[in-house]
Task: structure prediction
Amino acid sequence: MDKRELYRFAKYALTRAISLIVVVVIAVYITILIANMGGYVDQIIKSEVRFNIGVEVNQNPAYKSLPPRAKGELIEKLYQKEIARLGLDKPFILRSYQYLIQALSLELGRALYLTSDTGSRSVRNIIIERLPVTVLLFTTINLILFFFSLFVGLYASRKYESKFDKIIVALSPLSSIPGWFYGIFLILVFASLLHVLPYGGLVDAPPPQDTLSYTLSVLKHMILPILSWLIGYSFIQIYVRRTFFLMFSNEDYVEMAKAKGLPPRIIERRYILRPTLPPIITDFALMLISSWMGAIITERVFNWPGIGTLFYMAASLLDSPVIIGEVVVYAYLLAITVFVLDIIYAAVDPRIRLGVT
Amino acid sequence: MSYRIKDQIKELFQYKYALIGIGILLVLIGISIYTVIAIPYHQATYLWRGGEGIWLDYPRNAMPSWINFFLPKKLPETIILDTQKTQKGVTKVIVPFGEQASKVRIELTFNYLYDDFPSEINLFYSAKYNVSSPHLTIYWIKPEGQRFKLRELTLRKNGAYYISNDGKLALNLQNYYSQKIGEEPNYVMSPEIGLFAVEDKSVSKLETATPLKGRYLMVIEGTLFEKNSDVNVKLVVYGKVYGAAGTDHLRRDLSIALLWGTPIALSFGVIAALSIAMIQIIIAAISAWFAGRVDFIVQKITEVNMILPFLPILIMISVFYSFSIWMLLVVVIALSIFGSGVKTYRAVFLQIKEFPYVEAAKAYGASSLRIVFLYIIPKVLPTIIPSLVLSVSDFVFLEAAMALLGLGDPVAPTWGKIIEDAYSTGALYKGYFYWVLEPSFLLILTALGFALLGFSLDKIFNPRLKER
Result:
């Protein structure tokens, strides 16, 4: 890359970054608006403040001799002061900006009801504790799904119109049923009927002490979730990949390579896989990120204590700081992924960098 | 054009899969129409939300009746003997006795020919009196003549004797069997087992205990102390199977929710898929046609929408503003109209925009509106029909997923609700598989119907891949 190109590249990256930041800001702001429109957050905070002040005044020996009416007035006065301090007396529009700035700087505040396993009320701690559990399961699932469908898809496209290919095509309607739904059946068969695999959860209870058996126990608990997604999503993915490869294997340059007598392996690697890989990787990256968030139901079915279960719990407890916190973290992750992908493609593909499409 | 469509329909019928799909969908539509006519919606929700009062005569967690065809051991049906109905095996005699009082004798007989014990036995009664309430003694006589005194009852106006919950009776039965077979049963014997069991060694273990087949008799004798006093009883021997679909933990007949789930699922899925696709196409067409600033704004909104996680936002909205399934539908549509489909369609429209016939239309002065709605949009409609059909089941499952999270419609009986009930009461642990399998079967059927039709349509409308 010469200097001019580097300059162009930097300019492109900067524009993309700014555009994505704007998008994230708007998305987070919309989330805050939705989560506050019912007045839930404010009302809960207000009632909490009133309760706390009430308790404080009633327990303070200095106010013990006050008549009930004076006490009530005192509570009201302190309450108004505290509300003003918290900024709750200002109109919502003003405060929503404050929330936005807090959310964007990842000051996610404190949960209303939920706590982390270590007892922390901080939303950030709660999320950080749950995130690895989700990332572990769904990264594993997506990696297996990705490589499985890639290689089987390649194989099917090579064996186009064969029996194997036809079976793949015939099985693809199976994917109109989501993975979590197959999960219910897998639990029914392997846990309820055969008693060979656990119903759900992360580890056996009580958790094994040494690292090896702990790992094995976690792996055992991962089998059914992985299997449910494989049944649910692999056939359609294989089908999509196969179709994709078939389209590309009809390109003139592939015919040309064939005519030159190149071995099929090299044709596949150089002329089919390479040009199709960018969109496939984009697919994979986006699916991976969204699975960290969108697997709420799979986690619920398998009782997997990750970020999805956390979201579900927060939703049923109306714990809005946790809900908003998760959406913010997710928006950031997604935006960063999109940005990284954009940059990589721009670096690899000059057409994007130069704005030629 | 019409010739082409006719041709394509003809082609559709040549696909075996499409035929199966259409068949499945027709069956489901048939069920929906029947349900909407036979069980009005308000009645369905009343029954489904009515609490246990309505369902008192129904067994709890009973499997569907047809399961008996496949089982070597026949599971019992529910037996109801009611003195207020003229019924075989029910007699009630009241004989005056002195000035005011009268003697009453009620006999309830039934044949029990099943291979398993009933799940529960209850005796409901109602008595008519002013001051002195009737007094009754209840006896149970087994086919071989053994006679058990169950209890003496002083009646209230309305009430029930929950025989299965009678701890004293359970204890008496346990002692009776210990003496008779010289061995203490190794489990806590509930009355419905003790009152039906074959009285030999087999009763000592729960696994081997079997019910005695034959004619059972319940005798209720007693005194009415007032002249116009009357008493009526209803004996319910709850079975372990019920109806075509079985019952749930609240004794509700599952067939109501299974039936009503069909029209709800179909309309939810079809309306969501159809309206989202239509709105996305219109937005994409406008964006592509007008280009410039409109296009820029649409593109940015789409990007924001893609950063917002769909399911979490949906969950958040339905938690904060819990609402009915139709409101859910509106929110789902609202969240999806700027979905990724807009980008795909826009790319197609950008190509169509350059087609000569559009140029021609522009040249003779057709308005933008006319070109967008009459010339551009109709051009792509056939190609999007397959993905539209395929997306229906996504929305059907979305509804089920929301119900599974406890965020479904608070009143409407749906398939997802049944699964949620089953899941949260641990049906899979307890082995009530029918409870999960029935709604699941219908969900799968729906998904399969739309998938088979959709894939066949894809082959017809997008034939590029048919010949490779």
User: Anything to note?
Assistant: Residues 211-248 of chain A form the longest helix (38 residues). The radius of gyration of chain A is 27 Å. Chain A has two domains: 3-104, 123-317. Residues 3-104 of chain A form one domain.
